[in-house]
Amino acid sequence: MGETYVTVTVSNPLEPERCWTGKFLADTGATFCIVPRNRLEEIGIVPISSRHVELADGSITRLEMGIAGIEFIGEYTAGRVAFGSDDVEPLLGVLTMQEVGVKVDTVNHCLEPSKARA
User: Fold this and answer.
1) φ, ψ of residue 19 in degrees (nearest 5)
2) Cβ count within 10 A of residue 71
3) Angstrom distance (rounded) from CA 97 to CA 28
4) Quick one: which of 34, 35, 26 has its CA closest to 103?
5) Which domains does the chain have, with CATH numbers?
């Protein structure tokens, strides 16, 4: 199975002109977006909470969380982002994908519309 990458712009909701654009892995196993800490700090995103998360290797760690604007495939939403290490691969989590109504098409390696549920 191949990987699906998406160009994502993360912005400061209070100052939208402060933003960073990167290539994110659309990760169906990740709940939240994970963004390199240095990139979030550069655009003025600050931690407002933290929570324990399980990483892909099964280990548990505590990550700081902030609120950011998130834009991809012409859609915009705002939500929680996790502060990863400076060299972490950025991840687009399922909560963000659900917010804009898309899911990963693992055959064609792209995002496709998904049905919203009320």
Assistant:
1) -145, 165
2) 19
3) 9
4) 26
5) 5-113 (2.40.70.10)
Sequential pLDDT tens for the chain (118 residues): 579 999 999 999 999 999 999 999 999 999 999 999 999 999 999 999 999 999 888 999 999 999 999 999 999 999 999 999 999 999 999 999 999 999 999 899 999 988 776 6
Cα gap 108→59, rounded to integer Å: 31
Residue tagged 């109504």 (tokens): 101
Global model pTM greater than 0.70: yes
- Residues counted in the chain: 118
Under DSSP, is residue 75 helix (H, G, I), strand (E, B) or coil?
A: strand
What the block records as the tokens of 54 is: 């399980």
- Dist CA 47 CA 29 (whole Å): 23
Give the Å distances, CA to CA, from 21 to 6, 10, 29, 36, 39: 10, 6, 22, 12, 9
Write out the two tokens for 112: 């496709």
